[in-house]
Each structure stands twice: as C-alpha cells, then as structure tokens.
Amino acid sequence: MRNLFKYSIxxxxxxxxxxxxxxxxxxxxxHGKICLDCHPDLQKKISEEKAHTPVKDGNCISCxxxxxxxxxxxxxxxxxxxxxxxxxxxxxxxxxxxIIHDPVRDGKCLTCxxxxSSTNDKLLIKKGGExxxxxxxxxxxxxxxxxxxxxxxxxxxxxxxxxxxANEGLIKKGNADLCSSCHKVREKLFIDAHxxxxxxxxxxxSCxxxxSSDSKSLLKASIHQPMLKRDCKACHNGSDSxxxxxxINNGANLCYNCHANTKKSFEKINNHVIGNRxxxxxxCxxxxxxxxxxxxxxxxxxxxxxxxxxxxxxVTAKAVIFKHPKFEDCSSCHTAHGSDNISFLxxxxxxxxxxxxxxEKQQIFSHPVGADIIDPxxxxxxxxxxxxxxxxxxxxxxxxxxxxxxxxxxxHRF
Amino acid sequence: MNKNLIxxxxxxxxxxxxxxxxVEAEKKSLPLPMPLPxxxxxxxxxxxxxxxxxxxxxxxxxxxxxxxxxxxxxxxxSGDKIMGKFNQPSAIFFDESKKRLYVADTGNNRLVSFDPDxxxxxxxxxxxxxxxxxxxxxxxxxxxxxxGGPEKNGLFLIDISKKIFKQFDIRDAPARENPILPWKxxxxxxDTLYIIDKANGRILIIDSDGRYLREIKFENKFIDxxxxxxxADGNIYSLSTLERKIYIxxxxxxxxxSFGKMGNKVNEFEFPVSIAISPNGFIYVLDQHKGSVxxxxxxxxFQSSFSKNKWKNQGELYxxxxxxxxxxxxxxxxxxxxxxxxxxxxxx
Lengths: 414, 348
Prior knowledge:
The structure holds two protein chains of two kinds.
Chain A: H1 2-38, H2 41-47, H3 53-56, H4 79-86, E1 99-100, H5 102-105, H6 129-135, H7 138-141, E2 146-147, H8 149-153, E3 164-165, H9 175-180, H10 188-193, E4 212-213, E5 222-223, H11 225-228, H12 251-256, H13 260-266, E6 270-271, E7 289-290, H14 300-307, H15 309-315, E8 322-323, E9 338-339, H16 362-365, E10 370-374, E11 381-382, H17 384-387, E12 392-393
Antiparallel strand pairs in A: 1-3, 2-4, 5-7, 6-9, 8-12, 10-11
Chain B: H1 2-28, H2 39-42, H3 45-61, E1 71-77, E2 91-95, E3 100-105, E4 110-114, E5 120-124, E6 135-138, E7 144-148, E8 154-159, E9 164-167, E10 182-187, E11 193-197, E12 202-206, E13 212-216, E14 225-230, E15 236-240, E16 245-249, E17 255-259, E18 272-277, E19 283-287, E20 292-296, E21 302-307, E22 322-325, E23 330-335, E24 340-346
Antiparallel strand pairs in B: 1-24, 2-3, 3-4, 4-5, 6-7, 7-8, 8-9, 10-11, 11-12, 12-13, 14-15, 15-16, 16-17, 18-19, 19-20, 20-21, 22-23, 23-24
C-alpha cells in the first residue's frame, strides 16, 4: 500500500509541478508578447543570440512591474538590488572579495552591462577594454610612449577581475605570480636585465608601470638614485650572495644612511613615525621607483587615506557638498613627516589658509581675526578655521554651521 | 462636519499623549518615540494601553547605547593671565597621593600643576632645558618621567627635590628594526613604567631603574600601539589607532582580548587616540575625529558614548588628544583643538 502511494502520488506531484511551471513560463512569455505591442523596438533584441535570458524568454516581468513602480523604467526594485537577486555570484571570484570595483559596490551594473541584449559577450555595452576605457580613460592609462601590449589591445580582463578581487588594483593574482604567467622570470636574460638579482620573486609593479611608461621596459617615471645607477648594493646584499635581496641595514636606519636630514623632520610634536614593520618609511614610500612625487607608493591622497580612511569617508559623504578643492592634495596644507602645528599643518592654524596666498583676498575683508579677537567659547584667537571647516562641510564656503541660522549666534547671542 | 470633529478630537488627544510621552521620555533620558499612529487614540483605549505596554517592553529591551552616558563637565582649563594659555597640550597625569594634576603643555615646553580644585599652582621647565614634553607620569618617590627634550622624543627623569634632570636610559631592551621612539607613558602601583615605542609598534615595560622587564609586540602584524594604561591589577590596556582596536593584556603581558572596529556607528571608532580605565573597570576610549568618549566594559561590550557637537562650546571636544581617569572617576581630556583641558565627573 505504501509502495503504491509512493509510485503513484510522487509522479503525479512532479507532473503537476511541471505543468504549473510550464504555465508560468507560458504566462511570462505571453506577458512579453503584450509588452512588445507597445515596445516593438525590443523585438530585435529578443531575437539576438546574446540577449539576457529573461528577455529571450519574454519574461519582462521578472525585472519590470507592468503597472506601477517607484523605480525608473518600472523596475521591480533598485538597480543595486534587482540584478543581485539572480546574479548572486560570478565565475571570476564573486562580487564581495576584499577589493570591489566601484560600480559593483554601488550596484551600478548597467555602467558596464546592457540589461536586454548586446552584440558583446556577457551583455557588455562595449567590447572588451573599450568598456573599461569609458571610465578609466585610455589617455590616463597610456601616458607614455610605450605601453603594455595587453593595454594596447584593451584586454584588461587578462590581468584584472572586473567585479572583485583579493588583490589591490583588482588584479587576478598576486603581482609576481600574475606577471610570471607570461614573462619567463627564471631565464638568464631576465635575471641579467635585473643586475643578477632574482627580481621575478618580488613585486614587479614596485619598479614597472604595468600600463605605460616612457621607458621601453615600462619603468616608472621617478627612480630611486641607487637603482638608477644600478647600485643595488647600496641597500641589498650582493647579487652573488646567498640571500641577495636581503637588506644591508635594519628598518628606517637603512634610509637614514643617506637621508640623515630627513630624520630631523620627524622630530616634531606630531609625527608620522609608525613602526611594527621592517621599515617605517615603507608605510608611504616605494624604495625603487614611483610615478608620483617623493617616490610615494601610490598617489598622494591614496597614501594618506590608507590610514585616514575615516577622513576620506567623512569628506566624501553625500552630506558634505562643499569640499576644499585641494582636499586630495593633502601636502598643500599638511606636512607628511611631522609638524609642530596641530593636525600636522604646515603653518600655524592662523596662517594656514594663506599658504601660497590661496586666500589672500579673504585676509582683507573677512570677519576680524587674529591675536586680539578672542573666541568667547574657548578663549582662543579667532582664525579662518573658527568658522570654516577646511576639509569640507554641508554649508557654503565650507562653513561649520548654517550662516543664515546658527553660525553667527554661536558668539553673537541676540 | 461630524467626521472632521472626530478627527480633530483624535488629533488633540494624540498631541496631549505626545506631550505626556515627551515628558516621560525626558525624565528617563530616552529618545523620543515617533508621533503615535492615530488609530490608537481615535479608536479603542484598549489598543492604546497595548501600545504602551509594547513600548515599555521595547524600552527595556533597547540596547544600552540608546541611553546617554553620565558625564558632567566640572571644569574647563584654558589658561589665565598668570599661567598663560596652553599651547598644544599632549598629556595629563593625576597624582593620587598628592592630589595634584599635571599637564604636559607641549608647545610651551613646560609641565603645569594644578590643585584638586583645578587652581594653577606652578609650572616647571627644568630651567629651560625641558622641551616639548609629550607625556608625563610621577612615581611613588615623587620623580617624574617625561617624554620630551632637549631633543624631542627622549625619556627624561626629573627629581625636583634633588634638582635632577637627566636622560633616563632604557637598559637591555632588545633592539628592533627602528631606533626606539618613546611616545606615551603609563605607570603602575609598583612604579613599573610602560612606554609606547612608536617606531617599533611595541610596549616596553621597564622598572623604575630603567631595567628592561619585557615587551609587548605582535610579530609579523602591523599594530600601531598609540596609548597605554594599567589597571590596579596590573592588566595592560592599549590602543591601535589605525586598526581601530583596543588590546588587553594580563599583568604578565600576555594577550587576553581585543575589540573594536572602524565605522561611524555609535559603538564604532573613527580615529581613536587615547584610552583610560575608570576605577570601576570601564574602558574609556577617546575618539579624536568623532570628538567623543566611548565607554566599554572589559569584555568589549559597548556601554555609552559621550559626544557633543565636537566644536568649541564648554563641554564640547574638538580634536581631543588624550584622556585620563583618576580614582574618583574624574575624566580629564586634553581638548587640543580648543587648547584647553576639560574635566568631567564620570558616574560613580
């Protein structure tokens, strides 16, 4: 009896479910046909081979609400939610590894993909690297006379993961592993080109710009003097030693061998000596080569925001609509190594806004400031920073409060 | 007409109820609830009662961080004609035995002392030899240990009665990658000194004769210890500004626990710079960019946050730099952006 139940009821249930699902898909397809009555231009897209699966199936209602919606295009949900309801993961490593491509993080899938159909693979709006170059302008990547062949061809995704990656710069593998998948780093020719050092074991982008450079070997623009002279021994053991890449001195002392004067620049009330790694200088600098000033490891603001992430978050918040035009050029107001002024300012707080005569005019007609004008709240002399937040604020002129409401009342009680 | 009248009465009842709730909420220092839905007042009184019961239950279940902390401003020291103004003060130490408050007035190259009522007593600059004092503690022999100059970031011993001002050498400390850079100091009841070595990301522990006892350091891990305190049991508390984390070690220097993360929620850190331990074992963390003091239990459970507009009025903090709590749970804060010391009475 039990077997009879098993062999008769279960097939019936499965057949029933199949009928229901067929009916649903037929219903969806029917919906699609109705949609095409008014949207005939979509007919061509539906018939394209590389159309989005719901489009092929005429299942418009999987993304659109046919009647009303709070979202543009009568979408069923926000773009940043809707796509992820089906596309929970991708084959290239997912959407949520440590480093996430900005449009992915913001759920702006349509920046790169067409939701209906495309002549390109993966519903990309543009073919291959052309899509990447929409935001990452070709001219900003190919800055020199020479460029990497893959960059020339626009084959960005050979090296980069388009959605997310565990590696900086969204590269698919660790730096040395990535490059050595094409470049034969163990061959004599390669080792000889690196003065006999096993450079293939280290970080290639420490010296090379992977995209473009004026140099044939894609070396970065600024090269550390000893490296330029091929005097690797200034910092490393000899190439014929057992451990050729080992450094000849410990920590920052290695750098102070030549940069003795720099040590003084750290002896300030506020300083950026932060240890617990081999060499605290390497927190900010690249010892071999760089495309930025002072051999910085990255662009200046990236170096600073690496530690001051909260400052970046605060200043780039939506509410902060007025930002200092140089807020990403940190060293225009702050010193990097150390300062006897508050907040690592280059000059005293009262003189800081006139460095480089940026705000010369305001020195003439502004609210009285200076040693004789005392803020009644904290008994400090008034200066620009009393009323302005130099980094940025939600009020015009970077004011700290609404000038039409509570700002003046802070001191002038009516 | 009738309908309008009913609606009007309902609205009136709602507004009366809201006033009552507001008064009640103010008494309890609770956040005000949203205006109550009209249905509860225009219809059944039973539903209204139900709502209040639900509201009370929710209030009881609400996480502790909805409640404001108990900190009252009791003094604000910004200098006067006699002592002059502070210039980038960096640290505070309250000597429990002599009931004296000492301020490292870094930019003015001096230590300044105050009585328990926060009246200025005197200043000390070792005859002009003391430069840029960054941190100061006093031991049971009434000797000061100061991080400062003649050259910055040296460790100095000051014995005023014996007129001694000399460099204090740390003996036998293991050499690390970078030269030692003393940054902050703490002292325990046995006069053991705890020194943040900023250049090597470690806490050096030495006795009052300068002999190295041990160090706290995580190998192969980037931790920027930026402040240190010791409680009555010898447990060591430190802070990593860049990791936005608190570290706790036992009196042998063995790691016990850590907690904290970056974020802008009330219990998260933006840029924590200093740490203090209350006499009843709570951990105060001073967040410079939030302009607030966050209070945690030892197990990392968030208790409360004291924060205001982070600007210039009395009781507000602007770029605060250092926090210290005495045995009476007075909380001393170096309010550096305002060049003043603000003193709060914490809850007892």
